[in-house]
Amino acid sequence: LTAMNNGVGVAADELLGGLLAPGMDRGSCLSRYQLLRYFKHFPYAPSPYLLEKLRAYEARHRRCAPGTLLYAEAVERLRSGHSAEGMECRYIVWLPFDGLGNRMLSMASGFLYALLTGRVLLAAIPPDSADLFCEPFPGATWLLPLEDFPVADLLHLGARPEQSYTSLLAKKKIVVDVDGNATAPPVPAYVYLSLGWQMVDRPFFCGEHQLALAKVNWLMLYSDLYFAPSLYTITEFQDELRRLFPAKESMSHLLLRYLLHPGNPVWGLVTRYYHSYLAPATRRIGVQIRMAGGDTVPADDKYNQILACSRQEHILPETNDGGNKTDGGGSDGGSTTAILIASLYAEYYDMLRSRYYEHAAEGGAWVGVFQPTHEERQATGKLVHNRKALAEMYLLSFSEELLTSGLSTFGYVSSSLAGVRPTILLPAHGHKVPATPCRRAVSMEPCNLTPPWGVKCTAKAVDGEDLARHLKVCEDWGKGLKLF
Ligand code: GDP
Predict the structure, then answer these.
(1) HSE-up of residue 195 (Cα within 13 Å, Cβ side)
(2) Each residue of 41-55: b (16+ CB within 10 Å) or e?
(3) Which atom of ligand 1 is nearest to the CA of 224?
(4) What are 345-377's pLDDT values in tens digits?
(5) d(CA 451, CA 191)
(6) Segment 289-317 mean pLDDT
(7) Shortest-distance atom of ligand 1 to CA 343
(8) Distant-in-sequence contacts of 179-183, Cβ < 8 A, 24+ apart
(9) Residue 286 Cβ contacting ligand 1 at under 6 Å
(10) Does 262 sit behind a cis peptide bond, omega within 30 degrees of 0 on the bond before it?
(11) Which of 8, 174, 277, 456 has the fewest CB atoms within 10 Å, counting from its CB?
(12) Cα 102 to middle of ligand 1, angstroms
């Protein structure tokens, strides 16, 4: 690559303003050093405090990672069944749950929690994701060694509400007083946190329970949510979060760019596709079309929603519908637009490509429409499928502008990585095309689709007014909350 589309010099700062630690092996993770050349937006630099915390985290991770004596000791404690106070290394183990976008958001949330609480994040990566991501931390692995781990069948624990923190509380296996003291019986060696879309363990978001959980050496995190915004509701974390992310909407953006880098097999897909189809254009628009659950309508209806949205928000190039104004003389001022479609289905690509084939774009601009795959159905258990899905999230994140689907973590991740406030297609609840086709997002933050509504905490509540200033109901989901 000789030049970048945004004109930033290649060598200027390949480690994203100090966000990434130096000294890792380039060859084993090319994307870590090359991603910077592909992103078009750099809206937020990391705060000095975030950098300090990240470097401290990396040092802690090295001290406590698998392979160290401290790790071996902590595993022995886990085997013995009770937590011990004052252990230097405490862990949060990320467990896989749901699709790739969901997983990336729960990883980012789990990592943030580890930053806030002095824990070490280890990932139980299943075979379907074996080489998707690079090792994020210098000099130590983040992979949990699954063989010989004292908690059996970690990858298949599932939702397990009966083992959740809430049920431990109900069964008095852990007793928490108002000051967060976990009283007798002895604190269990691990606690399983059920923080998925059903949000079983709501007490997790109370200060008193955070104090109690701090005494537990191992936490197993089972979540498919971006629960990070809900950490703001805990007084102990609020000030810290403010200092880490002075701009609220930079949280997921910086966490994802720090933590997740596609491994070389995925990076090969990404770069081959980008240079073949997207790089030649002067502008890229990513369009992500996802239909899941109750949010399905016939393809023609969805297509019309996309066009109505595009007209409302001025996203895709309009066409001269008469079709006779084109002079064939080429693009206006050399402007060319590449529209990248990410979707499980081929129809939208066909329809959009025909649109710009049969009609000239206004101003005579050249418009290319591209779609890397149409896998037809989600196949999260398959590595090759997941590699393509991840490649498409990153390709979307290299766009100047994004049109994404509501309720989709796939789209949320792309926008956060891109540093773009997307336009979000509103879901077709009950299979009905919504009257308002889409909304501009207030921030690049993902929606926390299941905040812990209704939880009653005894610890001091955070300043509600302050919360209201930076937490808002999501554009695409009335029960969800997002930072802005
Ligand atoms: P969400 O379900 O939209 O929140 O996103 P997830 O990423 O969690 O789960 C959807 C999964 O379906 C993805 O991880 C992919 O496996 C697959 N998928 C959905 N949309 C696409 C797409 O546009 N391209 C590809 N390659 N896969 C997709």
Answers:
(1) 33
(2) beebbbbeebbebbe
(3) 8
(4) 999 999 999 999 999 999 888 999 999 999 999
(5) 20
(6) 95
(7) 23
(8) 179/208, 179/211, 180/207, 180/208, 180/209, 180/210, 180/211, 180/212, 180/214, 180/459, 181/211, 181/212, 182/212, 182/215, 182/216
(9) no
(10) no
(11) 456
(12) 9
Q: Ligand 1 pocket: which of 410, 412, 415, 450 to mutate (most atoms <8 Å of CB)?
A: 410
- Measure 380 CA to ligand 1 centroid, in angstroms: 8
**Which of 226, 290, 347 gets mutated to test ligand 1 (max ligand atoms within 8 A of its CB)?**
290
pLDDT in tens, 234-282: 999 999 999 999 999 999 999 999 999 999 999 999 999 999 999 999 9
Cβ atoms of residues 248 and 229 within 8 Å: no
Q: Is-contact 294 430, C-beta < 8 A? A: yes
Atom of ligand 1 nearest to the CA of 288: 23
Helix (H, G, I), strand (E, B) or coil at 65: coil
Chain mean position to CA 405? 15
What is the spatial distance between Cα 129 and Cα 387, in angstroms, rounded to a whole number? Answer: 8
Contact criterion met (CB below 8 Å) for 365 and 317:
yes
Give the dihedral of Cα atoms 353, 357, 363, 369; nearest 10 deg: 20
pLDDT band at 322; cut points 50, 70, 90: low
Span from the CA of 411 to the centroid of ligand 1 (angstroms): 9
Its ipTM equals 0.99
- Ligand 1, from 105, 376, 377, 378: best to mutate by most atoms within 8 Å of Cβ? 378
Please tell me if the CB atom of residue 236 comes closer than 6 angstroms to any atom of ligand 1: no
Measure 257 CA to ligand 1 centroid, in angstroms.
19
Q: Is the CB of 106 under 6 A from ligand 1?
A: no
Nearest-CA residue for ligand 1 atom 10 is 99
| Both structure tokens of 463 | 């300043």
In the chain, the domains with their CATH numbers are 41-259 (no CATH), 264-483 (3.40.50.11350)
The token duo for 385 is: 């499928």
Query: How far, in Å, CA of 110 to CA of 57, rounded?
Result: 13
Q: Which residues contact 434 (CB under 8 A, 6 or more apart)?
A: 305, 426, 427, 428
The whole-angstrom separation of Cα 68 and Cα 357 is: 61
